[in-house]
C-alpha cells in the first residue's frame, strides 16, 4: 500500500484539479463531523470506528483517483477489497480501541496541504509516517530553507 500511495503523489500533483482537492477537503470535514458525533455519544465506538475506517480509506482512494491514471486506479482496487474484508471483520467483532480521529485528520490535512503546495517530498514523507502510524515530522519549509541558506552565505 505504501509504495502505491507514494507513487501517486507526483501524479496527483501533476494531474489533480480543484474538484479532486474539494473531494478530499469534504472527506476531512466528514471525519471531523464523525469525531464530534462520537464524542457527544450520538454514535457508538464500534460504529464510529467502522465509519472512520471507510472515511480513511476514502481519503487515500481520493488521492489515487486524483492521479487520473487508469492503471494506478485499477491497481488500488485490490487493496480496497482487502480493506472491505477488514471492515466486515470489525463489524462482527468486539472493538476495544478507537483511534484518535482528530489526530488522523491532522495528518490527512498535512498531506493535503503538501499536495496543494505541490510539495512532493513533504507529501511523500507525511504519507509514509501516516501509514506507519508515526508522528509527522516538522517540515522545513522552502522559504525557511532559503532564508537559512542566505544567512549562512552572509556569515
Strand segment tally: 0
What count of helical segments does DSSP give? 7
- Shape annotation: globular
**What's the order of the H and E elements?**
HHHHHHH
Radius of gyration, whole Å: 18 Å
The helix content, as a percent range, equals: over 70%
Low-confidence stretches: 144-155
First-to-last CA distance: 46 Å
What is the average per-residue confidence, as pLDDT, rounded to a whole number?
A: 79
Q: Which percent range describes the beta-strand content?
A: under 5%
> Biggest sheet: strands, sense, closure?
none
Class inferred from helices and paired strands: mainly alpha
What is the element layout, followed by pairings?
Elements: H1 2-15, H2 18-39, H3 45-65, H4 70-92, H5 101-116, H6 120-131, H7 142-154
Helix pairs in contact: 1-3, 1-6, 2-3, 2-5, 3-4, 5-6
